[in-house]
Amino acid sequence: MARDMSDKEILKMELDQLKKEVSTPRTPVSANCTDTIAFVEGLLPNDPLIKGVPDDKNPYKGDKGGCIIT
């Protein structure tokens, strides 16, 4: 697409994109990190990777036997 455009058209597109980006609201990284940490810690009690899966809800545990590779 850009190959078919003149330099002036490409510069106009870049300028339009920069105008859009300058109006994007920005927040400090420290604020975003604080929000992310709070979000993750809020989900921590229900996280099966941290807490584990109860035996009655675990489809891979039970009397199904194991797998032996020979």
Poorly predicted regions are: none
Which structural class do the helices and strands define?
mainly alpha
Outline: elongated
Reading the helices and strands in chain order gives: HHH
Q: Number of DSSP helices?
A: 3
Radius of gyration, whole Å: 26 Å
What fraction strand? under 5%
What's the helix and strand layout?
Layout: H1 7-22, H2 29-43, H3 48-51
Family: Belongs to the G protein gamma family.
Subcellular location: Cell membrane
GO molecular function, one term: G-protein beta-subunit binding
Could you name the key traits of this structure?
70 residues, mainly alpha, 50% helix, elongated, G-protein_gamma-like_dom, transducer, lipoprotein, GGL_sf
What does this structure look like?
- With about 70 residues, this protein is mainly α.
- It contains three helices and no strands.
- The N and C termini lie far apart (about 55 Å).
- The model has no long low-confidence stretch (mean pLDDT about 85).
Question: Summary?
Answer:
By secondary structure, this protein is mainly alpha-helical. It has helices spanning 7-22, 29-43, 48-51. The mean pLDDT is 86.
